[in-house]
Amino acid sequence: MYKRKENAYSNPEDLRVIAKNKDQGTNAAVDDPESMTNRVKRIHANDLENILPFFLVTVPYVLVSSLQVSSTTSPQYAIWDSVIGNVLMFSFTLSRYLYFVAYWRAWQPWRSLIWFWGLMTTVLIGIYTIVCLYVL
């Protein structure tokens, strides 16, 4: 959608196919860093770079958490364990949505702070997983 609107394409061969005449194809921008198309690509790449570590930390937490519920620990601890884990996972998800908006709108100081919030949430889930393993 933005590629056609901004006349910005990733590859020069795309310009030749889409251009109606030869002049239009040579004047169009290829990978303009200021284009909204490239901003969306960077948002998507950043999501992939941050969601993978989150999954790598969260999957062991979910496995350890399910082991704790079935073990002989007190029921109160098991309830708090799931509440803390759910709050941390929701916090990361919220940070990624807010990061998307901040990146889309180019809110620079907020974008960095929201990214750091998501990073710290991932680190806290990792630490909490280790704590849960120790208590188990």
UniProtKB/TrEMBL annotation:
Keywords: Acetylation, Endoplasmic reticulum, Membrane, Mitochondrion, Mitochondrion outer membrane, Transferase, Transmembrane, Transmembrane helix
A family per Pfam: MAPEG
GO molecular function: glutathione transferase activity
InterPro entries: MAPEG-like_dom_sf, Membr-assoc_MAPEG, MGST1-like
Enzyme nomenclature, EC number: 2.5.1.18
Cellular component GO terms, alphabetical: endoplasmic reticulum membrane; mitochondrial outer membrane
Chief location: endoplasmic reticulum
Catalytic activity: RX + glutathione = an S-substituted glutathione + a halide anion + H(+)
Membrane topology: Multi-pass membrane protein
Residue stretches spanning the membrane: 51-71, 83-102, 114-135
Location of the protein in the cell: Endoplasmic reticulum membrane; Mitochondrion outer membrane
Origin: domain of life: Eukaryota
Role noted for this protein: Conjugation of reduced glutathione to a wide number of exogenous and endogenous hydrophobic electrophiles.
Subunit structure, as described in the record: Homotrimer; The trimer binds only one molecule of glutathione.
UniProt record similarity statement: Belongs to the MAPEG family.
Record protein name field: Microsomal glutathione S-transferase 1
